[in-house]
Design a protein that fits this description.
Layout (H helix, E strand, L loop, with lengths): L1 E4 L6 E5 L4 E5 L3 E6 L5 E6 L4 E4 L4 E6 L5 E6 L2
Antiparallel strand pairs: 1-8, 2-7, 3-6, 3-8, 4-5, 4-7
Length: 76
């Protein structure tokens, strides 16, 4: 299990998720996720929301609010 905080105004570099991941968000606040093809989506995350992310994703993330952090668990 790990914790991650998205820094305001600083993109998280392109990365790959090789395992399914469950996230629990700690604040209200959207995150923009952009894939290698340039297509973006807004993840409208809310405090205490649980989100599942399937393995195999490549993307850059950028915080679209003042603060956001999450507790994450990669599944085996």
């Amino acid at each position: 299990m790990s914790r991650f905080s998205w820094p305001p105004g600083v993109p998280v570099p392109m990365h790959h998720h090789d395992k399914d991941t469950v996230m629990v968000f700690r604040h209200d606040g959207p995150i923009r996720s952009t894939g290698p093809d340039g297509k973006s989506e807004i993840l409208d995350s809310r405090k205490d929301q649980i989100m599942f992310s399937k393995a195999g994703r490549n993307h850059i993330e950028l915080l679209a609010c003042d603060r956001q952090s999450a507790v994450m668990r990669e599944l085996k």
